[in-house]
User: Fold this.
Amino acid sequence: DWVLGARSDKVWEEIWPDIGPRIAQVLEHGRATWDEALLLFLERSGFPEETYHTFSYSPVYDDENRIAGMLCVVTEVSERVIGERRLRILKDLAARALGTSSIDECCRCSCDVLAEHPFSIPFAAVYLLDRASRAARRIATTRAVSERALPPILDESNPVWPLAQLLASETVQHVQDLPQAGIEVTAGPWPDLVRQAILLPLKGSGGEGLAGFLIAGTSPRQRLDERYRAYFDLVAGQIAAAIADAQANEADRARVEALAEIDRAKTAFFSNVSHEFRTPLTLMLGPLVEVAANSSTPASAREQLELAHRNALRLLKLVNTLLDFSRIEAGRVQASYEQTDLAAFTSDLASNFRSAMERAALAFSVECEALDEPVYVDREMWEKIVLNLLSNAFKFTLRGGVTVRLRREADEAVLEISDTGVGIPEHELPRLFERFHRVEGSAGRTQEGSGIGLALVQELVKLHGGTLGALSEPGRGTTFRVAVPFGAAHLPSDRIKASRSLASTAIAAQAFVHEALRSIPSDVGSSSRLQALADEPIPRRDGFEAGARILLADDNADMRAYVRDLLAPIYSVEVVADGEQALEAAHRERPDLVVADVMMP
Assistant:
């Protein structure tokens, strides 16, 4: 009540330096004033409170047109101004802290945002908990605060900060009188010391308990009412969400790095083991060829040596393919691009398959047009591209034919290998060139294969700056299209006619042809070893009686011949190349035993 009739400069003493000049301007000069959201510190709650007012001063005139007084119209807008500021802080936290790549960066970004608004939060620090030690490590602060005020490691024994209560209850904790506890921190833009602070829990993701906590100083010029407390909860919730998001990002990155490390280990393993396999294979192949070619070697032994040689060569082909992949993944491919008569070279490569095509009763057409511009290719790589695609076409073409075309299209040399085979289902086309992926259920001459031939072709085509694609219709065939640019401008200049230091992984075309020929069903009963064994007396064996009928089904010709060699002297063996033939044979005459390859078509 004392303000009634009291002097204005006494009633509004704390803000008189702000409003006094405005009043004088009205009373002395008759000029009205207008202020929008003016900051005034009012002593109405026992401390200089941060308030905002929109008001106007207007002169009041008497009957003689003299200034007789002043009209003041005032509206307090403190809640609106402070609320907008707090909302802006929350928006900035969401924009800058969410999506950070690491937890530490997230905490630093959060504190950077809070540091830009010291009116609401004079100081803050983010701590992350170590559940094992039940201590917390300080990650970031809003400003330089003494170690005594905010220690880098906070444990339950600290007498100022109620960490034990926070861990026990996971609820907000208050520290009432910081200066009395020896913690003197000024309130940012004002000289006042921060009197109170709050410990706010930061919830972990997925209900895993606390991830950490936020220490936040309260403004000494704002009342710590329910709205201010709710604002602190929102800030803590926003920071906790950002930390959870950063944890998820770190976990994803760790998974990616772990997978990359596994991939690197796999690549190193394939590279090392491929090198290790090549040495004994080379030492096996040489003597096998020499002994098989020796005229003194018996015919029966020569057949066994040829069987071993074919399959060792097949294994070497697979090992070399794995070695090619490991080199590509490790970036150690040593290409040597040279100007090539691509039409003649491709025709020569394709001609190797003519005998296999004729033996399988397939039409084979090679249409390679002479090109009027040079094409630079790595000859070893191009050989693997052509032979792999031809081998694939032969494998899945049971009737009809295969066509090889080479022609110019715009600025590219285009190779197309078309067949009239079983085709590829539409849903399988997007995964056709994935390594180790195989189209399930396709009827081919054999189900053998590693699923890496087409994947290797794609990698080799990419190394030429080219593209590889496929068009297919189930039951009507497939066309593979390889396009490589003319000239050498698209290739690394240091690999033009470059030398190689790594061992070559080239395989003779005959290895592909021999493998193709072995997939063609043939009569294996005419081998000299079978004839010799048939003349030997049949011994008695436990189990099946001698002469029992065995049905042998396998799509690998060498395996059929080898197993029949073992069984034919004792049992009556019928050999078939696939499951359909096996079923027909079993219906025709019931066997005593079926021996079948479970991966057979």
